[in-house]
Amino acid sequence: MDKRISLIAANWKMHKTIGETVSFIETLQKEVGPCTDREVMIAPPYTALDAARKAMTMEGYKLAAQNFHWEEKGAYTGEISGPMLKDLGCDCVILGHSERRHLFGETDEMIQKKLAAAFKFGLLPILCVGEVLEEREAGRTLEVIGTQLERAVQGLSREESGKIVIAYEPVWAIGTGKTATPGQAQEVHLAIRQHIAALFDKEVANRLRILYGGSVKPDNVDALMAQPDIDGLLVGGASLEVSSFKRIVQYQ
Ligand code: PEP
Q1: Where on this chain does substrate bind (predicted)?
Q2: Residue 171 DSSP one-character state
Q3: 65 has which bridge partners?
Q4: How many whole angstroms from 177 Cα to the centroid of ligand 1?
Q5: What structural domains does the chain harbor?
Q6: Where are the alpha helices (DSSP H) in the chain?
Q7: Is the overall model pTM greater than 0.80, yes or no?
Q8: Is 236 in the pocket of ligand 1 (CB under 6 A)?
Q9: If phi over 0 gives left and psi between -120 and 50 gives alpha, with beta otherwise, what is residue 175?
Q10: Pairwise CA distance, residues 74 & 125, whole Å
Q11: Which residue from 41, 174, 226, 228 has the fewest beta carbons nearer than 10 Å?
Q12: How many CA atoms lie within 13 A of 15 on its CB side?
């Protein structure tokens, strides 16, 4: 089995101006240097994508958008399409983040269309899945995530499915300071891999990179990354300061 290259991703949400974005990326690259054994991905707001692309000059740094619309163009006021993100130099797009699902009403059906569109327009999709607290407490975590996964990958080819990056983000851990323990995260990551193996096959499942997200901090990063099925991290709050994100990128 090929080694899965780890991916440390920053989701800045609705934070940072163009100037702040450029200054962050320049400082991070200066302090971390080029990355060859891991990838670093930054998802600034749409308004800073162009500046971020220009500031990313070192190997191993990738640019992501936080969302997009599945259509190529049309009467969709306020939306941005895949070709527009490619035009800006984006490599990846985050899909189905819990804030998109819960605050903006994104459904599994919309996320499935976005996933298919990401492949159509040449963007690497980072598909977020995760359960809310009541679902975890009711013992429904794996069932909820299984359904989100099945609906999202409908219609994808085997090749495409092996390329998706999945981010397991328990909703109760996002921005709350409550992190899943490394053991809790590993259990779900393994179940995701097994689910993908059942939907496609083992080879596809072994290629799949599965990130953990939810209150990742410098002091829990090493234990999370030591788990065999955690291939990277999706980081919100702790990605906004260079000092903490740098420590996360430099996990041991
Ligand atoms: C996120 O929003 O993807 C996230 C994981 O946020 P935080 O790290 O702040 O919990």
Answers
A1: 11-13, 175, 215, 236-237
A2: G
A3: 93
A4: 9
A5: 6-249 (3.20.20.70)
A6: 18-32, 49-55, 82-87, 98-103, 108-120, 133-137, 141-153, 158-163, 182-199, 202-207, 221-225, 242-249
A7: yes
A8: yes
A9: left
A10: 22
A11: 228
A12: 13
Q: Which of 77, 94, 78, 16 is nearest to 51 (CA)?
A: 16
Q: Report residue 199 as tokens.
A: 């939907």
Is 65:49 a contact under the CB 8 Å cutoff?
yes
Which of 13, 24, 81, 84 has the alpha carbon at shortest distance from 51?
24
Give the Cα separation of 136 and 177 in Å (integer).
17
In terms of Cα–Cα distance, which of 156, 44, 161, 151 is closest to 91? 44
Residue with tokens 């607290």: 133
User: What per-residue confidence (pLDDT) applies to 219?
Assistant: 95
What ipTM describes this predicted complex? 0.96
Q: Is 95 in the pocket of ligand 1 (CB under 6 A)?
A: no
Atom of ligand 1 nearest to the CA of 237: 9
Place of tokens 């013992």: 139
203 is catalytic: no
In SS3 terms, 29-91 reads as HHHHCCCCCEEEEEECCHHHHHHHHHHCCCCCEEEEECCCECCCCCCCCCCCEHHHHHHCCCC
Which residue from 118, 135, 98 is spatially nearest to 213, judged by alpha carbons?
98
CB 63 within 8 A of CB 42: yes
Nearest atom of ligand 1 to the alpha carbon of 173: 10
pLDDT digits (tens, 9 = 90+) for 170-198: 999 988 888 889 999 999 999 999 999 99
Average pLDDT of each block of 10 consecutive residues along the chain (252 residues)?
A: 88 98 98 97 98 98 98 98 98 97 96 97 98 94 96 93 95 88 96 95 94 95 97 98 98 94
Active site residue 26: no
